[in-house]
Design brief:
Helix content is 37%, strand content 17%. By secondary structure, it is an alpha/beta fold. The protein folds into 2 domains: 367 residues, TIM Barrel (Alpha-Beta Barrel), CATH 3.20.20; 128 residues, Diaminopimelate Epimerase, Chain A, domain 1 (Roll). The strands form 5 sheets. The protein has a 6-stranded mixed beta sheet. Strands 9-10-11-12-14-13 form a 6-stranded mixed beta sheet. α9 crosses α10 and α14 runs parallel beside α15.
Length: 620
């Protein structure tokens, strides 16, 4: 027995010694980071981390290589060092000196809605009423009424019929919006006189529906409320009404399929995360199903639209601040009122102008909801705020609601409320207030050339510096972030839009408000490190750093190349997009170079457009 005890004691001593010594011996032989090998390593690159978030021209640390494991950045460094980490199953991409950047964060676009027109099934019953020489609004209204009556026997009862017509006509400066909203030239009663068998919708930012269509729309909100619509005459005051109607006509499985395609398409433009509001039941169900099934091609920071608040004000999302809560691919970003005013020229400004200009300005009553949200301690963002007067009212609501919630200035700033578009805002005197409240300004460069000339004509040249005033915003100590807000990215590419911040060129080649140009480093920070704060994921997104999501793009040319003129930044595009370690897009040419198959949706329109731009320069 004694010998057995001695042997057991000796065994435990030897075993304990092994446990103590084994880790030391193991660590001397194998890199302790290799719990398992990286999934992917990108080598021989110009990896620009963008990890300097300051308001300066420093792009941060640069590397040659980047390793990815479990969807996150595992290591950055020299090519030879990271190659030593590769295992037998590690994918290695030699990008041959190309620039590698963090993925682009687009803080305000609607790819889930663009999907309906781009990938969705056609809506039966669409008609177009066209202007003929000499037509005024009275003639066009009569054409609409005649058409609605004539199609009564061509469609089944209860079928939806969408009719389009001009927004502007040659015989008058009056827009369709004014003809409907102010002069009530077409109403649901006029449509009802000729057709109540089908659900009739006249399209536009302002349009008209007949009674059957109005009742169905109202049923989405309990039957006694018609958001953005006047039940007295069936005139609706926002394009959101049509988006709700068309969205609810699309079955969820179809919605899922077309949104998955649209999201995948956007990855070819380098978009790895986008922000947007969401307000339709089928749309919401489809996106959440994609996330639950692991089928989200990119990340989506969503805002619940105020439509939900009108119907279910006691939802958990409206009782406590759930911003930032969700999965790695889909999370709540804020609460939105959708829009505080209209698209140009229907925005609300403080500028004195001709009566016909001021007559068309719109300030929506729903701006009041911002006070309701902030009084509940909720984050408000992802909202269309186009005019400076609308921004004034929105800031009033933030202050009043926050006071009701008993918040200090520091607590208000910590909410990171956001205002989107910067179409004709902020004014210079609004900047201190924005800074004090910690408002993040999400600005769409498309409005520089899209609205700038019209603002100069309607309000005066001096107000061009209020159109997407990036330099004023940034130098005023307010965080500015990037948004596209357009499906035109499919024909231009994301770097066309980023380049607009830098060159501010109009369609005629003239610079619009030279004093608001920013350098290309700031421009890229708005779409990467700074934008990560808007979507509440600065610890995971926006820079290439160890531990952050492996969201990155490999470019066709160096965005920071001093020999690349500012006006040619539009010719930059991704050749590869990786999101969460997953390959989402690989260009045909780079795929051939890497001797692998291309992947994703090839952006043929962008490729053709860039070729045209480059050819035009070469021929000069």
């Amino acid at each position: 027995m004694k010998s057995i005890i001695i042997k057991k004691s000796l065994f435990f001593c030897i075993y304990a010694s092994f446990l103590c010594l084994a880790p030391i011996a193991f660590s001397q032989q194998v890199d302790s980071r290799l719990l398992h090998y990286p999934d992917t390593i990108i080598v021989n690159g110009n990896v620009i981390s963008m990890d300097d978030e300051g308001v300066n021209e420093n792009v941060g640390t640069t590397y040659q290589a980047l390793a990815i494991r479990d969807g996150r950045i595992f290591a950055l460094g020299a090519t030879l060092d990271l190659m030593n980490l590769a295992g037998p199953q590690t994918k290695i991409y030699d990008v041959n000196g190309r620039t590698v950047l963090p993925g682009i964060i687009d803080t305000h676009s609607h790819p889930h809605e663009y999907a309906e027109e781009h990938w969705g099934p056609p809506v039966e019953g669409d008609y177009i009423v066209e202007e003929e020489p000499g037509d005024g609004w009275a003639e066009l209204v009569q054409k609409v009424v005649d058409l609605v009556g004539s199609i009564k026997d061509k469609h089944a009862p209860g079928e939806w019929v969408f009719i389009d017509w001009p927004r502007r006509i040659q015989t008058t400066n009056m827009m369709a919006d004014i003809a409907l909203r102010v002069h009530r030239m077409l109403t649901r009663q006029m449509l009802d006189e000729v057709n109540t068998d089908q659900n009739i919708v006249l399209l536009g930012n302002r349009g008209v529906v007949n009674t059957p269509a109005m009742n169905i729309y109202g049923s989405y909100f309990g039957g006694d409320e018609y958001p953005d619509m006047s039940p007295d005459d069936g005139i609706y005051l926002s394009g959101s009404v049509v988006r709700v109607l068309r969205g609810e006509l699309t079955p969820i499985p179809i919605f899922k399929a077309m949104m998955e395609q649209e999201f995948l398409e956007w990855t070819a433009y380098g978009i790895t995360t986008f922000g947007s509001r969401i307000g339709m039941y089928n749309q919401t169900a489809a996106i959440r199903a994609l996330d639950a099934e692991g089928r989200m091609p990119l990340r989506y920071a969503y805002a619940l639209d105020s439509y939900w608040f009108r119907v279910m004000p006691d939802m958990p999302e409206f009782r406590t601040n759930l911003s930032g809560i969700g999965s790695d691919w889909l999370w709540q970003n804020s609460i939105s009122i959708s829009s505080g005013d209209g698209a140009y020229p229907l925005l609300a400004t403080s500028i004195e102008a001709r009566p016909e200009i001021k007559e068309r300005e719109v300030l929506r009553n729903r701006v009041q909801y911002i006070k309701d949200f902030t009084s509940r301690g909720l984050r408000w963002a992802n909202t269309h705020i186009a005019g400076d007067r609308t921004l004034d009212v929105a800031l009033d609501m933030v202050e009043e609601g926050s006071a009701m919630a008993g918040m200090s200035e520091e607590q208000i700033r910590a909410m990171r409320h956001g205002s989107d578009h910067c179409r004709v805002n902020p004014r210079p005197d609004q900047l201190p207030r924005l800074k004090k409240l910690g408002i993040i300004m999400s600005c769409a460069p498309k409005y520089i050339q899209g609205d700038g000339p019209k603002v100069a004509s309607d309000y005066g040249e001096e107000y061009l510096s209020w159109v997407v005033p990036m330099r004023s915003i940034i130098e005023g100590g307010v965080r500015a972030v990037f948004e596209i807000d357009s499906h035109a990215v499919a024909g231009e590419g994301a770097f066309f839009h980023i380049g607009q911040y830098v060159n501010r060129m109009g369609n005629d080649g003239n610079v619009l408000a030279e004093d608001q140009k920013i350098n290309r480093t700031w421009a890229l920070k708005t779409a990467t490190s700074w934008a990560s704060y808007y979507v509440l994921k600065e610890n995971d997104l926006g820079t290439l750093e160890e531990g952050k999501f492996a969201d990155l793009i490999v470019l066709n040319k160096n965005y920071f190349d001093e020999n690349l003129p500012d006006e040619m930044l539009k010719t930059v595009r991704p050749l590869m997009t990786i999101i969460g370690g997953h390959l989402r897009y690989l260009d045909n040419g780079l795929a051939a170079e890497l001797k692998v198959e291309p992947f994703g949706i090839q952006p043929e329109q962008v490729i053709r457009q860039i070729h045209q731009w480059e050819t035009e320069v070469d021929s000069q």
